[in-house]
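Session log. Operator J.P. requested a structure for one protein chain; no other inputs attached. Running the standard single-chain path with token output.
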Amino acid sequence: EEFPTEEAQEKERQRLFRLIEELVKWENSNNESVLAQARAEIMKSCDGNPPPVLDPFCGGGSIPLEAQRLGLINYAVPGSELDAKVDEIAGKILANPKWAVRWTKTTANIPLRALAAQLMDASIGWESVSNYLGDRREAVAAFKEKRAPKLTGE
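Structure written below.
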């Protein structure tokens, strides 16, 4: 094991945190020294075989730019090729052990479900309260009348 003690693990963790802190600074956006360190860490962490980065917005978001900046593989395809690319990726996923994928996905969703459960009651409550506000009535009337609403903050 590369970091056999808790002290060694904590030291490495702090080193990586410092690298991330430098990487996210705006002035380091094009700092080749910082980028080279980040790229090296990525390659080291995946044995020189970086994972593909898939952007569901086909290049419309910041994901591909950041992936490119860090030297990761990125897929962006024209709409006419999208179905074929999705089929290709789905085929690779389907080739994995079914139960391992299912249980990994289930595990990854546990905190998301817990968060949704925590927020749902408050969300429904506040949404219900907002139904009685003047701005809500104005918004509904404006929608029905096909005009811009005149909201007052009430």
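Operator note: Residues 98-130 form the longest helix (33 residues).
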